[in-house]
Amino acid sequence: MNKEKRVAWRTKLGTKLLGRVSVSLIISIILFAAMAVPGYQMMTDLIYSPAHLQKQAYKLGDDFQKYLEDNNISIRDRSALLKWIDQYPDMVIYLFLDGSPVIHAGPLAYDNEDSEPLTVQDISDISDGYVKLEYPEGTVEILLFYFGGTVYYVSLLIGCFLVAFIFFLALFLWMIKGRIWYIGKLEQEMQVLESGDLNQPVTILGNDELADLAQSIEDMRVSVMERIDNEDRAKQANNELITAMSHDLRTPLTKQIGFLDIIYYKKYQSEEQLFEYIGKAREKAYQIKTMSDKLFQYFLAFDMEEEEVELELLDGREVLNQMIAEQVLDLRSAGYHVLFTQFEDEFWLEINPDELYRIFDNLFSNIRKYADPKELVEIWNEIHEDHITLTFTNHILRNKIQPESTRIGLKSVERLLEHIGGKLQTTMEADIFLLKMEISSGHFKNSPARK
Predict the structure, then answer these.
(1) Looking at beta carbons, which pairs linking 123-127 to residues 24 or more positions away fall under 8 Å?
(2) Which of 91, 94, 141, 447 might form a disulfide with 104, Cβ 3.0–4.6 angstroms?
(3) Which stretches of 341-431 are assigned E, i.e. beta strand?
(4) Which of 107, 98, 109 is nearest to 133 (CA)?
(5) Quick one: three-class SS letters along 365-380?
(6) How do strand 129-135 and strand 138-146 relate by DSSP bridges?
(7) What are 96-114's pLDDT values in tens digits?
(8) Which tens digit of pLDDT belongs to each residue from 392-427?
(9) Count helices and strands in the chain by DSSP H and E runs
(10) For the range 416-422, what are the long-range contacts, defined as Cβ-Cβ under 8 Å and sequence gap of 24 or more?
(11) Coil, strand, or helix at residue 29?
């Protein structure tokens, strides 16, 4: 328990609170002393002034004289005198008759039977008050020691303490009112977040544990919002994809069913027409297969966000030149005109090679499907300090400038690039299609020779 307390005071918030308590306490002590010391001196000057003490002595003499007269008491009646002295608990009274001690009593009176009796001369110089009265029995002298200031001193100290304590509380609360307000502010914001409104930002003030807690909550809020936003966008993209795929699949499927119905019901007019319908049905079947394969690749790329892949440090110049050259060779074999500018400078990629193969398979599949083989396909590159870019341009076939396509191949590429920290940008001007692929920092590393 004690160890936990010590650790708590070592925190930033605990240190601040301890500092504010110390400052408030020191100022309160100074205030207490500033009130008590002058107050004590003023009270002493007032209560123990010679005039006040002598006034007390005269009053005591009047009371004594009245007591004797009212009760017809002899000055030598000790029991009656003791009863009278008991009325003055804040005094020690010495009573002499014709110079001889009659009685001395009070709460602090000192009586030693072995000592010699005191005389008026013994205590007159140190007493607080003196009064002399004449009676038939003789001359009565009353000397007193006054202790009535004790009550006033105690009252003064209690009053000063209460004022200082109230000041301490007020000052301490004033010094921490900012953090108290901040706690209330955080509570209100937490209630808003609990209600489901994640758009409410969390206020971050100061540099202590409260601010750290608020920062953690704010980071969590932003993270949850980003996750929800990503999930919403993914759901929307998938819904759009499913809707588009349903449309794109329905078109060739409807045509295929029509061709098969013609064959099934023998509505063809010749054997050549039969083979023509069979060929068209077969073509639509392959078209449906191609679209379903691309759909599978898209969802496979989408699911990669949940998978951890092993990264390899590769010679980027060699790997990319080789992968792209293989794809370019296939394009040229299919009758396309391709201008490929290879990488010349050395650089390194920390990446999974399977992902690169899938990216280029999708890119070049898209080129084979939509690019005009009569026009030039250009591929060039740029190397920057923290990323590389690959740019592809080609002319779109006239009958596919506005294709009814879901662009699944490009979406798969975009997913794969996002998974490795890259970006994909596409633009379309007239019949020219431009695609820019970027692999950014974290997966791109300059070679030691370039550093």
Answers:
(1) 123/94, 127/94
(2) 94
(3) 347-351, 376-383, 388-395, 422-429
(4) 98
(5) HHHHHHECCCCEEEEE
(6) antiparallel
(7) 887 777 777 755 444 444 4
(8) 999 998 765 444 454 666 777 887 788 777 889 999
(9) 11, 12
(10) 416/301, 416/304, 416/355, 416/358, 416/359, 416/362, 417/359, 419/301, 419/304, 419/305, 419/355, 420/351, 420/352, 420/355
(11) helix
Cα–Cα dist 171/357, whole Å: 70
DSSP H or E segment with residue 139? strand 138-146
| Closest by Cα among 56, 60, 80, 59 to 68 | 80
Q: In what order do the strands lie in the sheet with 312-315?
A: 312-315, 347-351, 444-446
- Smallest Cα–Cα separation from 152: which of 300, 293, 280, 48? 48
How many Å from the N-terminal Cα to the C-terminal Cα in the chain? 56
Local structure of residue 314 (DSSP, 8 states): E
Tokens of 429: 């001007």
Give this prediction's pTM: 0.46
238-273 in b/e burial notation, b at 16+ Cβ within 10 A?
eeebeeebeebbeebeeebeebbebbeeeebeeeee
Q: What is the three-state SS of 189-204?
A: HHHHHHCCCCCCCCCC
Q: Tell me how long the chain is.
A: 451
Bigger pLDDT: 284 vs 246: 284
- Using one digit for the tens of pLDDT, what is the confidence trace for 426-438? 999 888 999 999 9
Cβ atoms of 132 and 171 closer than 8 Å? no
Q: How many CB atoms lie within 10 A of CB 97?
A: 16
